[in-house]
């Protein structure tokens, strides 16, 4: 498991390196959601998503030998940017394997951070397998996207900051992809406020973590097709699943059109740019899948990496 | 003139009422602009723009008799929202005169805050005249949009916060409409850092303050037509002009396509939603009208009140 102290150590390491992202509130959102909502806006994090926190924490933990070999990663986008950016910060060489249909803005950003990109067909091979092969072939240090306590400890710092800024919360909503963000978030809030409820949010077309938790073991699904490209996992992480089994109270599912409505609402009313995964936890509230019943709610807005062109396409439908 | 102490007094009054908006930075923006840029994001202010600061400060200064008569205002949108919201906060009745072609999102928001709306044709009558008639007819307390020290003192609190968060700045860029934001901003920065340069930004199709400063007196122009609907003034304010004549070092002009490019850049790279006036000061940097030469730059992103539909239209051209 992960300890609060691991997250605090990551926070000290990230101080002055990661952005301290703002916590936004809106009376309109409170009225719509039925509670007092605090959005932790990791869309403003370096690299455009919370992923930088975990990647930088992981790379900082490597030995000089491991760094000298360079690092590699596999990711649909945000983890790729996070690893590329962390590697540049620390003067380490990085190679990234990305799905060929990853959003153009994400491909361009990774390239802009100076990493080498290779693409693959994500519908023909599970991500974990493709990543393992890539790392072996390159003889580089593999940076996992989620299934590692150092990644989760870094990700957990966002929730630590949220609680520092918003104070006690009764309920925390976070997207679940591989489970790194959720593992860190749940560890922090349950350590500080054991009575708080922790709700994960997945795309309806995936539901892999919800079904795994119900089954009591990690199930595997074909690569799901939905809008939230940050959450297209075929199986929860092995380590993160154990943490989530212990600490997550419930998982709710959100449909694509509910994600789009939340993205439009966040743009219109809060002036926030979110990618589909970034809006999914807010969507769960707006679509009524969670009723906070007046409680103090924290929501992790995990990322904003949607290019202008893709945003226009999504909004125009 | 205005004193720093007036702005500090307004800041104490606004503490806990106005949002303390974030200051955003971006290495990509720094590279493009050629300086270390700090964006004070008033797009996240209550009512979606800096205007709430001045309106609330003004309304707070009214006597019980003045409040009892209710307040009225004339505005293309952001001041209207600010007055409506401030009036609701303070339990005062509000009536707002708005141009009939004001953005739909702004009309809807004012209505949502519980104010009564009347519309008029802004191309047939100067705003100041229409506002004066409206106030006389309604026998309500008129809330000026910019030409008043209490409005400017409230607006100046944004720059006070920017300097608290960013530290010393060599250069400050702010949009100029009627001059309320600029009067407050210039007062604050020149009091704290007398060597700092203050640059105002206007739409090319207006240039009314630039030409007035060059002429040494307030000139009057027909209602200009350009994208920055928050800056469609026909003449600088009487009081604000005296402050700006004293404290503004330069005014630069920005074309509509440069505003659109800045809005797209702020969306893509900083995940910020801005209305045209909100992006105009950043546009001056990105378009090369100002060269910071490595300096520490503050930019006031004055507002984000652009509805999703209008944003899509503007970006799709």
How does the SSE layout of this entry go?
The structure is a homodimer of 317-residue chains.
Chain A: H1 4-14, E1 23-24, H2 27-33, E2 36-41, H3 51-60, H4 64-68, E3 71-74, H5 78-90, E4 94-99, H6 104-112, E5 116-120, H7 127-138, E6 141-142, H8 149-166, E7 171-175, H9 180-192, E8 197-203, H10 208-215, H11 238-247, E9 250-254, H12 256-270, H13 276-286, E10 296-301, H14 308-316
Parallel strand pairs in A: 2-10, 3-4, 3-6, 4-5, 7-8, 7-10, 8-9
Antiparallel strand pairs in A: 1-2
Helix pairs in contact in A: 1-8, 3-5, 3-8, 5-6, 8-9, 9-11, 12-13
Can you walk through the features of this model?
The structure is a homodimer of 317-residue chains. By secondary structure, the first copy, chain A, is α/β, with parallel strands linked by helices. In chain A, the strands form two sheets. In chain A, strands 1-2-10-7-8-9 form a six-stranded mixed beta sheet, with helices on both faces. Chain A is 48% helix and 15% strand. The model of chain A has no long low-confidence stretch (mean pLDDT 95). The A-B interface holds A 22, 24, 43-44, 48, 105, 112, 264, 267-268, 270-273, 304, 307-308, 311-312, 315-316 and B 22, 24, 28, 43-44, 48, 105, 264, 267-268, 270-273, 304, 307-308, 311-312, 315-316.
Biggest sheet strand order of chain A reads 1-2-10-7-8-9
User: Could you give the distance between the termini of chain A?
Assistant: 43 Å
Name the chain pair with the biggest interface and residue counts per chain: A-B, 21 and 21 residues
Q: Which overall shape of chain A is indicated by the principal axes computed on the Cα atoms?
A: globular
| Strand count of chain A | 10
Helix count of chain A equals: 14
Which percent band covers the strand fraction of chain A?
A: 15-25%
Oligomer: homodimer
Alpha carbon gyration radius of chain A: 18 Å
**Alpha-beta content class of chain A:** alpha/beta
């Amino acid at each position: 498991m992960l300890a609060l102290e691991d997250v605090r150590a990551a926070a000290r390491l990230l101080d002055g390196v990661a952005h301290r992202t703002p916590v936004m509130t809106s009376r309109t959102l409170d009225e719509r959601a039925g509670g007092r909502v605090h959005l932790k806006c990791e869309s403003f994090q370096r690299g455009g998503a919370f992923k930088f926190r975990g990647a930088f924490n992981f790379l900082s933990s490597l030995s000089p030998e491991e760094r000298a070999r360079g690092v590699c990663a596999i990711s649909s986008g945000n983890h790729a940017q996070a690893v590329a950016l962390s590697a540049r910060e620390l003067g380490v060489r990085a190679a990234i394997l990305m799905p060929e249909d990853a959003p153009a803005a994400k491909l361009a950003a990774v390239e802009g951070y100076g990493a080498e990109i290779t693409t693959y067909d994500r519908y023909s091979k599970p991500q974990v397998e493709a990543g393992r092969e890539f790392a072996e072939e390159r003889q580089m240090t593999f940076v996992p996207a989620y299934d590692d306590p150092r990644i989760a400890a870094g990700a957990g710092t966002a929730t630590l900051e949220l609680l520092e800024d918003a104070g006690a919360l009764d309920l925390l909503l976070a997207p679940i992809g591989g489970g790194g963000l959720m593992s860190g978030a749940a560890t922090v809030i349950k350590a500080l406020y054991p009575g708080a409820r922790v709700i994960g949010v997945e795309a309806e077309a995936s539901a892999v973590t919800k079904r795994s938790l119900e089954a009591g073991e990690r199930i595997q699904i074909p690569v799901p097709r939905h809008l939230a490209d940050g959450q297209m996992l075929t199986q929860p992480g092995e380590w993160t699943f154990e943490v989530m089994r212990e600490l997550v109270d419930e998982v709710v599912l959100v449909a694509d059109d509910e994600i789009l409505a939340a993205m439009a609402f966040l743009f219109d009313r809060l002036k926030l740019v979110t990618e589909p995964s970034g809006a999914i936890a807010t969507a769960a509230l707006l679509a009524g899948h969670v009723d906070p019943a007046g409680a103090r709610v924290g929501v992790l807005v995990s990322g904003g990496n949607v290019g202008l062109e893709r945003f226009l396409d999504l909004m125009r439908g």
